[in-house]
Amino acid sequence: MAASDPVADMLAKIQNAAKVRHEKVDVPTSKMKLEIVKILKNEGYIKNFKKVQDDDGHNVIRIFLKYDDSNESVIHGMSKISTPGRRVYSGYREMPRVYNGYGTLIVSTSSGVTTGKKASEKMVGGELICKVW
Q1: CA 37 to CA 92: how far, in whole Å?
Q2: What is the spatial distance between Cα 61 and Cα 28, in angstroms, rounded to a whole number?
Q3: Is the model's pTM score more than 0.85?
């Protein structure tokens, strides 16, 4: 059965794997998911990722989760903002901040998927995809 919101499915898989302290998690590949995972890597929420094929021959993104010294997940929470039934857009002037700047907002702009901070600096708005803290 196909997921109606693949990005939300990916976020849920990452959160669930982090809660039970898995080393890695596999999610099906898409361009949007790959861009989101690149941002998570650049912002320091995950150790690394790579594109691989699973046992059935499907392309997946293998995400290696990151933990601190006390074996707690670096990702404290993730939530989807836009849903298939309700898209949320923001201009660069009204770009929301996540946990007063301690979290990361991921935005889909006309110049690609980026963080809310970089979108504001480039003066572009877009669809608010998710927030991570």
Answers
A1: 22
A2: 6
A3: yes
Q: 24-49 burial, b if ≥16 CB within 10 A, otherwise e?
A: ebebeeeeebebbbebbbeeebbeeb
Ramachandran region, residue 105 (left: φ > 0; alpha: ψ -120 to 50; beta: rest): beta
At 45-90, the pLDDT tens digits run 999 999 999 889 999 999 999 999 999 999 999 999 999 999 999 9
Contact 73, 18 (CB under 8 A): yes
1 burial class (0-12, 13-18, 19+ CB within 10 angstroms)?
Answer: exposed
| CA of residue 64 relative to chain centroid, distance | 13
Determine the residue type at 47: K
